[in-house]
Automatic annotation (TrEMBL):
<comment type="similarity">
    <text>Belongs to the mannitol dehydrogenase family.</text>
</comment>
<dbReference type="InterPro" id="IPR013118">
    <property type="entry name" value="Mannitol_DH_C"/>
</dbReference>
<feature type="binding site">
    <location>
        <begin position="3"/>
        <end position="14"/>
    </location>
    <ligand>
        <name>NAD(+)</name>
    </ligand>
</feature>
<feature type="domain" description="Mannitol dehydrogenase N-terminal">
    <location>
        <begin position="1"/>
        <end position="194"/>
    </location>
</feature>
<dbReference type="InterPro" id="IPR008927">
    <property type="entry name" value="6-PGluconate_DH-like_C_sf"/>
</dbReference>
<keyword id="KW-0560">Oxidoreductase</keyword>
<dbReference type="InterPro" id="IPR013131">
    <property type="entry name" value="Mannitol_DH_N"/>
</dbReference>
<dbReference type="InterPro" id="IPR013328">
    <property type="entry name" value="6PGD_dom2"/>
</dbReference>
<feature type="domain" description="Mannitol dehydrogenase C-terminal">
    <location>
        <begin position="201"/>
        <end position="375"/>
    </location>
</feature>
<dbReference type="GO" id="GO:0005829">
    <property type="term" value="C:cytosol"/>
</dbReference>
<dbReference type="Pfam" id="PF08125">
    <property type="entry name" value="Mannitol_dh_C"/>
</dbReference>
<protein>
    <recommendedName>
        <fullName>Mannitol-1-phosphate 5-dehydrogenase</fullName>
        <ecNumber>1.1.1.17</ecNumber>
    </recommendedName>
</protein>
<dbReference type="InterPro" id="IPR036291">
    <property type="entry name" value="NAD(P)-bd_dom_sf"/>
</dbReference>
<dbReference type="Pfam" id="PF01232">
    <property type="entry name" value="Mannitol_dh"/>
</dbReference>
<dbReference type="GO" id="GO:0019592">
    <property type="term" value="P:mannitol catabolic process"/>
</dbReference>
<dbReference type="GO" id="GO:0008926">
    <property type="term" value="F:mannitol-1-phosphate 5-dehydrogenase activity"/>
</dbReference>
<dbReference type="InterPro" id="IPR023028">
    <property type="entry name" value="Mannitol_1_phos_5_DH"/>
</dbReference>
Length: 378
């Protein structure tokens, strides 16, 4: 069986690529990073190390790579032949991989179904990828392609920090992982994916993950950077940070248990487990990575604004609001979204910038409170 995975980065190699290979697929990675693609073709394998006291490792064999910038025709041909297509490139990159996927899917043999699964931290990732793919197909081709290509949404969870090893393919990951895939979007037979969970309705799973793991992470990153910390570990050693983190997760727990039929005590166990994962002493994760792309993280449907606004009719989400205020201070010059955010703040002031990024109306009660916290944090 053949799998094509877009994005040979941390999650691509450290999680999805490894699961695909363990499930019996030969994996072709498609990326735009020459160093990684050349090394994949040279070695045909790479090592995954588990970040815990065991330091166990395993080899992912039978892999190769295609640089889609240099060879889009070969990349599309791989999609045309694949039994499954997955992606972990980052939500903002989905439009850039869509043309190759569209070309590959339209070249497929008639009647041979395939599933295309976006593995990104976002709600409706595969739906969005499908919309992008559709932009590159004529209406007739779209009808033919989507009759045999499914785009099931999925939720992925495994902490994989930015890291450097002598071999650039080696990747260290936490032992824990969760990959949940929605069956309603599948075409043809359910793919064999070792350790993945197939569910009829992904919404509770993706929202629980995004609004717990990622909202908590964002709180650590934005508030931690304000206090001068550089890593998750440094921030997690500060009782004030823990207090704020627990407050944030209490707020998202109210939101989640109010919206979905989640058992409150099971949810508490889930939250505790995540706090333990943040504390993993074998992982060093930078706050600049965890806070990356602040405009995405502040946007209306993402981990901060969505639960804050969702809660605002019932409770005042003080801790989420403080975290949103701290996000407005995210000022990492290597991060284009941070640069853009700081430009908006400089040009139009923080309330207008907040509205542009999140949709929280300038002058509203919530905006006024957030801007108050923002000013106090100076
Ligand atoms: N790292 C984590 O802990 C983690 C965990 C769960 C989910 N995620 C999600 O997975 C996605 C990827 O995150 P990551 O941490 O692996 O990022 P990453 O930067 O390590 O990997 C992204 C890869 O995509 C490649 N890429 C960029 N443009 C491309 C293009 N046009 N075509 C093909 N490849 C392209 C990059 O070169 C890179 O190798 C994000 O949506 C992230 O939110 C990350
Ligand atoms: O990848 P992002 O930028 O959406 O979020 C940063 C981290 O919170 C994220 O990568 C987590 O490590 C991951 O989602 C854990 O499963």
């Amino acid at each position: 069986m053949k799998a094509v995975h877009f994005g040979a980065g941390n999650i691509g190699r450290g999680f999805i690529g490894a699961i695909l290979q363990q499930s019996g697929y030969e994996v072709t990675f498609i990326d735009v990073n020459d160093e990684v693609i050349d090394r994949l073709n040279q070695d045909g394998k790479y090592e995954v190390v588990l970040a815990d006291e065991t330091k166990e490792s395993f080899v992912v064999n039978g892999v190769n790579g295609i640089n889609s910038k240099e060879n889009p025709v070969a990349a599309a041909a791989a999609v045309a032949e694949a039994d499954i297509v997955t992606a972990s490139v980052g939500p903002h990159v989905l439009p850039f991989i869509a043309p190759v996927i569209a070309k590959g899917l339209s070249e497929r043999q008639a009647g041979v179904s395939v599933n295309v699964i976006a593995c990104e931290n976002m709600i409706g990732g595969s739906d969005q990828l499908k919309e992008e793919v559709e932009k590159h197909l004529s209406p007739e081709d779209a009808e033919r392609v989507f009759a045999q290509a499914g785009f099931p949404n999925s939720a992925v969870d495994r902490i994989v920090p930015i890291q450097h090893h002598d071999n650039p393919l080696t990747i260290e990951v936490e032992r824990y992982f969760e990959w949940v895939i929605e069956t309603t979007g599948l075409k043809g037979e359910q793919p064999v994916l070792k350790g993945a969970l197939f569910v009829e309705n992904l919404v509770p799973f993706i929202e629980r993950k995004l609004l717990t793991v990622n909202t908590g992470h964002a709180s650590i990153a934005y508030n931690g950077l304000l206090k001068g910390y550089k890593t998750v570990k440094e921030a997690m050693d500060d009782p004030e940070m823990i207090h704020l983190l627990e407050g944030v997760l209490e707020e998202t727990s109210i939101f989640l248990t109010g919206k979905f039929d989640l058992d409150k005590s099971e949810h508490q166990t889930y939250v505790k487990k995540i706090i333990e994962r943040y504390r993993n002493p074998y992982i060093s994760d930078g706050l600049d990575r965890v806070g990356r792309a602040p405009l995405r993280k502040l946007s209306a449907g993402d981990r901060l604004t969505y639960p804050a606004v969702g809660l605002s009719n019932h409770v005042e989400p003080v801790n989420l609001e403080k975290t949103i205020a701290a996000a407005l201070r995210f000022n990492i010059t290597e991060d284009p979204e941070a640069v853009q955010l700081q430009e908006w703040i400089k040009q139009d002031g923080p309330a207008a910038a907040l509205e542009k990024a999140s949709g929280i109306e300038a002058g509203s009660e919530m905006s006024n409170r957030i801007i108050g916290y923002y000013q106090q944090s100076n």
